[in-house]
Design goal:
Order of helices and strands: HEHHHHHE
Number of strands: 2
Radius of gyration: 15 Å
Distance between the termini: 16 Å
Helix content: 40-55%
Strand content: 5-15%
Strand order of the largest sheet: 1-2
Structural class: mainly alpha
Number of domains: 1
Length: 138
């Protein structure tokens, strides 16, 4: 699986998620990504190809407005509906998965996360779309 990191202990994200905290703790860990090898080449480009990021824009969008990102990409209409931190971790992973799939398969730049290259070509990249998943590892 192609790996990029998001640290939810980052000060900006931690502060934004402060309102979502409750008295429960969790050891749940979810990994979101793709096992398609060319996903990283699309993300960062090569010496012969511009980058067409699909992963990092979803992370940036999450960091800018975690609550809005969660409600826009999940079945919850507010974060207050999320019953516990285990569910929160699962919902965030699913929301990231959903947005990354949208970034990869969008027809126009306005359908993708901010920061996605506006000239990202519409390609038949169903293998990448179908490979993006959130997996519970702990």
């Amino acid at each position: 699986m192609t790996r990029f990191g998001i640290d939810v202990n980052d000060a900006t994200v931690r502060d934004a998620l402060g309102d979502l905290e409750d008295e429960y703790t969790t050891e749940r860990v979810e990994v979101v990504g793709s096992n398609v090898e060319y996903g990283v080449f699309l993300e960062f480009g090569t010496e012969k190809m511009q980058p067409y990021p699909w992963f990092r824009p979803a992370i940036r969008e999450f960091k800018l407005d975690p609550e809005g990102f969660i409600t826009d990409n999940s079945g919850f209409s507010s974060v207050e509906e999320i019953p516990d931190t285990d569910t929160l971790v699962k919902v965030v992973a699913s929301a990231l998965e959903s947005q990354m799939e949208a970034n990869v398969s969008a027809v126009s730049a306005s359908d993708r996360s901010p920061g996605t290259h506006p000239d990202h070509p519409k390609r038949v990249i169903s293998n990448l779309v179908n490979s993006i998943e959130a997996v519970r590892v702990k």
